[in-house]
Design a protein that fits this description.
Layout lengths: L2 E4 L6 H10 L8 E4 L10 H10 L4 E3 L3 H10 L12 H4 L4 H9 L4 E4 L4 E4 L9 H17 L1 H6 L15 H13 L3 E2 L5 E2 L14 E2 L12 E4 L13 E3 L9 E6 L4 E6 L2
Parallel strand pairs: 1-2, 2-3, 5-9, 9-10
Antiparallel strand pairs: 1-11, 4-5, 6-7, 6-8, 11-12
Length: 267
């Protein structure tokens, strides 16, 4: 049995099928972890969403910013942009079933036996793993009980600093931004959304979230996506998986048990 973490899919189903052939994926024994952003910007958003949903218990996915964006568009909170490829989902006969399933996916998944945690963007440097799960659970509850109200207040870059004194709406926004949009932090843990390039080109005052000074030590390796400009190399406790398949790069699979990476070109 092998557990494969798959990078940002973003509607690129054809490369995914080639990748699964490449790794000799066996649905009878292997598991797939998806880092979120199953949809949008790519050419096969609807079939990609259907495919992952149909994997059932063989797959685990966490929510990414594009997944949440779809929910916001469907609830009239946000308008689709010219770059979005969501129309096929919006007009699909099984739209409600698919998006209901999508809304029930978590922001974080930890397998203690494997000692690995799956997120879309990262974990705030001031959070313990236990606290990260609590923050994610809080958002999941809000999606289940008041989705429209939650989505109405989800967008925005502030607050950019974590505090236990944040109001419920601000806490939810900070949590979503951390799990689905974060790349860089300042030394004090303040989120930065102005720069999204590789760490080698980052301004001096910015740190990759996993390298922020005085970050909380975490007991598991963190697998993340969202950051297509990030090189394949990172500290051993942080595994980047987004190789920009939707932008003509590659789609990757990281085998947790043997710590090997596999990939196929987007074309």
């Amino acid at each position: 049995m092998t557990t494969y973490a798959i990078g940002d899919l973003q509607g690129c189903l054809t490369p995914l099928k080639r990748l699964l052939d490449h790794i000799n994926y066996d649905p009878a024994s292997d598991k797939l972890w998806f880092v979120g952003d199953l949809i949008n910007r790519g050419p096969e958003s609807l079939p990609a969403l259907r495919f992952v949903k149909a994997l059932g218990s063989n797959a685990i996915t966490v929510l990414g910013n594009h997944d949440l964006h779809l929910l916001a568009v469907l609830h009239g909170v946000r308008k689709a942009s010219g770059k979005d490829t969501l129309d096929e989902i919006i007009n699909a006969p099984d739209r409600d079933e698919l998006t209901q399933w999508l809304s029930q996916q978590p922001l974080i998944h930890t397998d203690e036996k494997l000692a690995h945690t799956l997120v879309h963007a990262g974990i705030h440097p001031h959070w313990s793993l236990e606290q990260a799960h609590a923050m994610a659970s809080d958002v999941s509850d809000a999606l289940k009980t008041d989705m429209n109200g939650f989505l109405q207040h989800m967008y925005g870059n502030s607050p950019s600093r974590w505090s236990t004194d944040l109001t419920t709406r601000k806490r939810h926004r900070f949590t979503v931004n951390t799990f689905t949009r974060m790349r860089y932090c300042h030394e004090d843990g303040q989120l930065d959304f102005d720069f999204n390039g590789p760490p080698s080109a980052a301004p001096e005052q910015l740190y990759p979230w996993y390298a922020t000074p005085n970050r909380q030590p975490l007991p598991t390796t963190i697998i993340f996506g969202h950051w297509s400009s990030h090189p394949a190399i990172a500290p051993a406790y942080a595994i980047p998986t987004d190789r920009g398949c939707v932008w003509g790069g590659s789609l990757t699979a990281y085998a947790i048990e043997n710590q090997e990476s596999y990939w196929v070109d987007a074309g």
